Amino acid sequence: MHLPQSADPRTGSIAKELTLKVLEGVAGGRELKRVAVRLWDGTFWPDATPRAATVVLTRPSSLKEMLLAGTEAGVGEAYIHGAFNVEGDMEAAFELGDRIVEQTEGWSKKLKLGYLLLRLPDSPQA
């Protein structure tokens, strides 16, 4: 992955590209059956097919806020601070969380994910 150093992730398109790369990485090439993700600009990932749950990322920093700490508490704090919401079946949304855990086993995967997350903009609360 090559992104120009001068690219500002707050411009939206770079943050969107990085967010989609993170989501593709955590999906591990396998389809999510019960959950979709909707970005702050209305883009659906992996597609707009209706699913039991939709995780709604409310801003370009959402995934950074959710995942950079690497803990369940970090995800909870991101939820409390409005970084994301869940529409539909909350339990179905755990499919995404389970996939993230599966796809971040091992240091190389964690480093790759961390690199992408650090490129995302900071939280508005920071």
* Helical amount: 40-55%
Radius of gyration, taken over Cα atoms and rounded to an integer in Å: 14 Å
Question: How is the largest sheet built, in terms of strand order?
Answer: 2-1-3-4
Name the structural class.
Answer: alpha+beta
What is the end-to-end distance? 27 Å
Low-confidence stretches: 1-10
Give the CA-based shape. Answer: globular
Outline the biggest β-sheet: 4 strands, mixed
Kindly state the mean pLDDT as a whole number?
A: 86
Number of helices: 5
Number of strands: 4
Helix and strand sequence: HEEEHHEHH
User: Percent of residues in beta strands?
Assistant: 5-15%
Task: Provide an overview of this structure.
With 126 residues, the chain is an alpha+beta fold. The protein is 45% helix and 13% strand. It contains five helices and four strands; from the N terminus they run H-E-E-E-H-H-E-H-H. The protein has helices at 13-27, 62-67, 72-80, 90-103, 107-119; strands spanning 35-38, 44-45, 53-57, 84-88. A four-stranded mixed sheet has the order 2-1-3-4. Helix 1 (13-27) packs antiparallel against helix 5. The longest helix has 15 residues, at 13-27. It is globular. The protein starts with 12 loop residues before the first helix and ends in a 7-residue tail after the last helix.
